[in-house]
Design goal:
Blueprint: H1 2-17, E1 25-26, E2 44-56, E3 61-72, E4 76-82, E5 87-93, E6 96-97, E7 99-103, E8 106-110, E9 120-129, E10 133-134, E11 142-147, E12 150-154, E13 174-183, E14 187-189, E15 193-200, E16 203-214, E17 221-224, E18 227-233, E19 236-242, H2 248-258, H3 261-272, E20 279-284, E21 301-302, H4 314-325, E22 331-332, H5 339-355, H6 361-369, H7 393-410, H8 412-425, E23 430-431, H9 433-444, H10 449-456
Parallel strand pairs: 1-4, 2-13, 19-20, 20-21, 22-23
Antiparallel strand pairs: 2-3, 3-9, 4-8, 5-6, 5-9, 7-8, 10-11, 11-12, 12-17, 13-16, 14-17, 15-16, 18-19
Helix pairs in contact: 3-4, 4-5, 5-7, 6-7, 7-8, 7-10, 8-9
The structure holds tryptophan (TRP) and zinc ion.
Residues 139-140, 156, 292-295, 319-320, 323, 342, 391 line the site of tryptophan (TRP).
Length: 465
């Protein structure tokens, strides 16, 4: 009798306590990107990732603890994170063990009690294993590229899920604390500003703080032998890493080109407004063979092939540093709008080329416009190229041509006001092409529908430039 009463009481109590959460549902398995339906997840919003990762170059194995602070955006009975490979050792939510299961790249976490809409919660995941390269025959590979002395972790759009559990879509930005623990004598670079370093028991922990919100794919790790150069200039903390194993001629070109970073940031600030982050820099690994440079936030990664064999390699640096405004600070809301990243970064190269006396933006535009109508430059809708074509040349070049056509239509004054205020108004946020078109129309006071239809939404060569 007494026991029965206790059971009934407990039942009543648990029903009342979970009252609001009785409407709890699992969060969606994807955040809603038409190109990448499983990237990101629904039902919560990440505020901060704290990643503590130990990496052993001898075995290529990492062991990590990811502490993820988030806020529920619905009553949540369960939620997903994205993780590709690796082994999970434990999961807690708000300090209590949580059930979890995995299916492909989806990790489902079921907390002991449903999470209330609007409530903050902390998920802590311990995991380990050898991180993989995520192969993508269309776009190129991303993930953890092992080198003889360490690993380089970078990629786009899918890379975060190869090394930490995340809400892996640029629309859910967060700040990051990244601590990389490596054998003493190995360098470990990541995003943002250096936040101290200590050595204990033969292992050195390198701490990095990325305080401005960052998209998950922009988080990077560069572990191995690097000559690290740190300095402050113009209120920005620069940290560069150059692999000492580079052939001397390449090393010198990289070093000379990196030395121009403050000058390049000043140049770009003139057009785009204040540099959006407190840290900057770049990294080159001698064994980099993944085939692209990437605009990792505050600290892009390059391969030796990104630099010319003679003289100056500033063009690629201009491209990746321009992405700090367009791509990183002003990030995509969905991958179809990739031209908002690549078209803008390419246009920055055109401006730099003109500044360096290497051909005007108009000349670059004219040369491209002379391309025959059958060329692949004209084959895509630039603002919706398809998931397999995110990084085709047309997204870069026709994207930049779109901006030049806009410049011709509205005049230099309005055009540069459009670029600068776009970066300022959306600093730290996410955007879409529709939003850019509205912005350009508002600033210029012109109806630009025909122009953008012609340049962004027509898969053929425009009859007139
Ligand atoms: N976004 C990179 C740039 O700065 C290029 C890039 C990333 C890329 N991943 C890729 C290019 C995959 C081709 C394939 O331009
Ligand atoms: Zn780019």
């Amino acid at each position: 009798m007494v026991r029965k009463l206790a059971v009934v009481l407990a039942l009543v109590l648990s029903v009342t306590l979970t009252g609001a959460a009785s409407s709890a549902r699992p969060g969606a398995v994807g955040i809603g990107d038409p190109y990448y339906p499983l990237d990101g997840n629904g039902g919560y919003d990440v505020k901060h990732y704290d990643l503590a990762i130990r990496y052993a170059p001898a075995t290529d194995a990492l062991a990590g603890v990811a502490t993820i602070r988030a806020r529920a955006t619905q009553h949540l009975s369960a939620f997903n994170l994205d993780l590709d490979g690796l082994t999970i050792r434990s999961v807690t939510v708000d300090g209590r063990a949580a059930r979890w299961s995995r299916a492909g790249t989806e990790l489902t976490v079921t907390p002991r009690r449903p999470l209330h809409k609007g409530g903050a919660f902390v998920t802590k995941i311990a995991y380990d294993g050898v991180p993989k390269v995520i192969q993508d025959p269309d776009l190129g590979d991303g993930g953890a590229f092992t080198t003889s002395d360490g690993v380089m972790i970078l990629g786009e759009p899918d890379v975060a899920q190869a090394w930490y559990p995340s809400n892996d879509h640029p629309i859910d930005k967060a700040s990051f604390s990244i601590a990389l623990t490596v054998p003493k004598g190995v360098e470990a670079l990541s995003n943002g500003a250096p936040a101290g370093r200590f050595t204990r028991g033969g292992w050195t922990t390198w701490r990095w703080e990325q305080i401005e919100p960052m998209a998950t794919y922009l988080a990077m790790a560069a572990i191995g032998q690097f000559d690290v150069k740190s300095y402050r200039r113009d209120g920005i903390q620069f940290v560069d890493g150059i692999d000492p194993a580079l052939p001397k001629a390449t090393y010198d070109i990289v070093a000379r080109s990196f030395a121009r970073e403050p000058e390049i940031l000043r140049f770009l600030s003139g057009y785009f407004g204040q540099y959006p982050f407190r840290a900057a820099g770049g990294v080159v690994d001698a064994e980099g063979d993944w085939g692209y440079a990437l605009e990792n936030q505050g600290r892009p990664i390059y391969t030796p092939d990104d630099f010319p064999t003679v003289e100056d390699g500033s063009a690629i640096i201009v491209h990746e540093l321009a992405h700090q405004w367009y791509g990183d600070s002003v990030a995509l809301g969905r991958w179809a709008d990739i031209w908002l990243n690549e078209g803008f970064a390419t246009y920055a190269e055109w401006l730099w080329s003109e500044h360096e006396g290497l051909g005007t933006a108009q000349e670059t535009f004219d040369a491209l416009y002379a391309t025959p109508a059958t060329a692949s430059l004209w084959k895509y809708e630039v603002a919706d190229p398809g998931a397999a074509n995110l990084f085709v040349g047309a997204v870069y070049n026709r994207g930049a041509m779109t901006l030049h056509a806009l410049r011709k239509a509205v005049g230099d004054k309005a055009f540069f006001r459009i670029l600068k205020s776009w970066a300022q108004m959306n600093r730290g946020g996410n955007v879409t092409t529709a939003k850019f078109i509205r912005h350009a129309e508002r600033v210029s006071g012109k109806n630009l529908d025909a122009l953008f239809t012609k340049w962004l939404y027509t898969a053929s060569k425009p009859a007139t430039p």
